[in-house]
Design a protein that fits this description.
This protein is mostly helical. The protein has a domain of 54 residues. It has 3 helices and no strands. α2 packs antiparallel against α3. The protein is elongated, with a radius of gyration of 25 Å.
Length: 87
């Protein structure tokens, strides 16, 4: 009998707390890049993970470095445009 009353009491407290607490929307961490940039990132990870780390081929390393530099330039341009738009 007492355990039922305790359970009702706890349930009442929980429900009132849930009703009184506002929902906080989730924020996306990091930057939200265009689809093209995400595809380049996926390609870079694919080359680094599967090809370069298993073979250590200098040609693949050159390709990886090129993609990395291109990606860095594109991200820098996006950040610059975002800063200019903000100001």
């Amino acid at each position: 009998m007492k355990t039922e009353e305790v359970q009702k009491f706890v349930t009442g407290i929980q429900q009132s707390t849930w009703k009184a607490t506002p929902l906080i929307p989730r924020q996306v961490k990091g930057n939200n890049y265009p689809k093209e940039v995400r595809e380049i990132i996926a390609e870079k990870l694919k080359i680094r993970g599967k090809k370069w780390q298993t073979t250590r081929d200098p040609r693949i390393k050159t390709e990886l470095n090129t993609i990395t530099q291109d990606l860095r330039r594109i991200v820098q341009e996006i950040k610059q445009q975002s800063t200019e738009a903000h100001l």
